[in-house]
Amino acid sequence: MAIFRPEDEEQVREILAGLERPVELVVALGPEEGPVPGLPPDFDFGAETTRVVEELCALSGSLSTRVEQEPEGIGRFPAVLVRPEGREVGVRYDGLPWGYELGSLVGAVVEAGKREPTLRPESLAALAGLDRDLAIDVFVTPT
Amino acid sequence: MLLAYRLALASPRIRAAAVEASEFRALADEMDVAAVPTIVVNGAPRWAGSVPERVFLERVLAATSE
Fold this sequence. Notes:
With about 140 residues, chain A is α+β, with helices and mostly antiparallel strands. Chain A contains 4 helices and 5 strands, in the order αβαβββααβ.
């Protein structure tokens, strides 16, 4: 099954055409959590994530993907690491990006594809003084 | 979600992850996720719901003073 409806696919293709630099999507595979209500107990989230990311990457010459088994520092699988020009910058999607949340992955790609930060100048000034590491996890659902 | 990603891209000190709540149910329960988006900073749940950039940044940075 295609991940986008034909009309959506065209729109995503156009959005991705605006990428200003290459973005690599690393699919991190490892032990999965277990069954999710409404899905078969043997549903392979890793395989499905790999497929979704491959289909997304087929829509733009600026996107590439590869699979890594249990990369260091990643504790939830599958995950998609979004890397501008192949650099690890701490942008990640944990789980299978599908439904509404496919938009979050596309959003991450679009943001990573920009050469300049898109935050307000005041925000950038506040971040410049940051002297501790921060890990932000945003819980989302695809429906 | 995009705000969190923008912060991570703007600062080497920040990393941001979307976490699919139905797939990581045990963790979502541990973080008292009852609505989405729920924002967790450095392992502690902070708030639920979308907020403007200024508020998002204020709340995230508040976690650094704890």
